[in-house]
Design brief:
By secondary structure, the chain is α+β, with helices and mostly antiparallel strands. The chain has eleven helices and nine strands.
């Protein structure tokens, strides 16, 4: 098909309003992608949109970049180059497909799109991972971090990432409590939210003296490593997806943060036997020592103690998509505080 009818990609900025993807215009950029047959939304993420695009040549994953912080062409191209280079190192990723001009980002009508191969697979959380699977997960994240160290430019000197200030968190708690109490009619979620906010205020007052110091960024990280961004074929990871938050951050904190998502149980406890297997494998693969991981545990625990992102989405943004995560996330902060030494030992022993 002639490419002359494709709208010009004159702007590097992408607007944030979601629209039906311009499949015909997009496919005209590719010489061998085939003719479109169907384009169906897949489970929608919290930041961007994805579609399963079927053509006469096969299936593809079409991503529409919407998140204002990362949906500019230069940022997306950097992510794409990182995944292409990681793929060459053998890390399981799904790099974008270049069009006939070698471009991986299409800017059409002010919106950014990228075409990826469709990866058949399923998501697996920690409850579905054996001890061997937990070790495999830790090794995989270690390979991501060492691979990024090889393929990305060295990070610039960093002044450090400040941990949350208790006085700011107390103000946020008061604001969220005001919004929760103003809800009419109230439901079970509102009751639990008020309980957790009041409980957290007491916990934070008791532990405010344990605020960790600023941590310097130590390397490039995926930035959003959790079960919905990892596809498995059977017990083997097939692809790490959604690299929108690729950034320079303390790498060991990503390891702790990921474990707190993969291995949290519905009641808020961590499966510490699996955490231990995962952390040992990560330390070996990434070359991270116990002291670095212990410091990361301190900082991620403090982050969890001060974080209310799910409630901010519901009560400040009026967006309820994160509601299902709140019960376990809010319970984890309480349980982790009570079992702090056991959690730290699981990551460092």
């Amino acid at each position: 098909m002639p490419r002359s009818s494709v709208p010009p990609a004159s702007s590097g900025a992408c607007s944030s309003a979601p629209l039906a993807p311009p499949v015909g215009a997009l496919l005209r950029r590719y010489t061998d992608a085939g003719e479109p047959l169907s384009c169906q939304p897949v489970a929608q993420g919290l930041l961007n949109r994805g579609y399963r695009l079927a053509t006469t040549r096969g299936s593809y994953f079409l991503k529409q970049h919407l998140d204002a912080r990362t949906a500019d062409r230069d940022t997306i191209v950097r992510q794409h180059r990182a995944t292409q280079q990681l793929h060459a190192l053998g890390v399981p990723v799904a790099p974008p497909l270049p069009d006939s001009a070698g471009r991986t980002v299409a800017v059409i009508g002010g919106h950014c799109y990228a075409l990826h191969p469709w990866i058949d697979g399923r998501h697996r959380d920690g409850a579905q991972l054996s001890a061997a699977g937990s070790r495999r997960l830790g090794t995989l994240l270690g390979q991501v971090h060492t691979g990024l160290e090889r393929v990305m430019e060295p990070p610039a000197p960093d002044s450090g990432h400040e941990s949350a200030r208790p006085e700011d968190t107390f103000r946020l708690i008061d604001e969220l409590l005001r919004l929760v109490r103003a809800r009419r009619p109230r439901d079970g979620f509102d009751e639990l939210a008020e309980h957790r906010l009041r409980e957290r205020r007491v916990l934070l007052a008791a532990h405010a003296h344990r605020r960790p110091p600023a941590a310097a960024a130590t390397g490039w990280v995926h930035g959003d490593f959790h079960p919905f961004n990892l596809l498995y074929r059977g017990a083997v990871p097939a692809a790490i997806v959604d690299w929108d938050r690729l950034d320079v951050r303390p790498r060991a904190e990503e390891a702790v943060r990921a474990a707190a998502i993969f291995f949290v149980r519905p009641g808020g406890e961590l499966a510490l036997d699996k955490v231990r297997a995962y952390a040992r494998a990560y330390r070996r693969a990434a070359g991270v020592d116990r002291a670095e991981l212990a410091a990361a545990v301190d900082r991620v625990w403090w982050e969890r103690l001060n974080d209310f992102w799910t409630l901010r989405w519901r009560y400040q943004r009026h967006d309820r998509r994160a509601d299902p995560q709140f019960p376990a996330v809010s319970a984890l902060a309480v349980w982790w505080t009570r079992e702090y030494e056991a959690v730290r030992d699981a990551f460092t022993s």
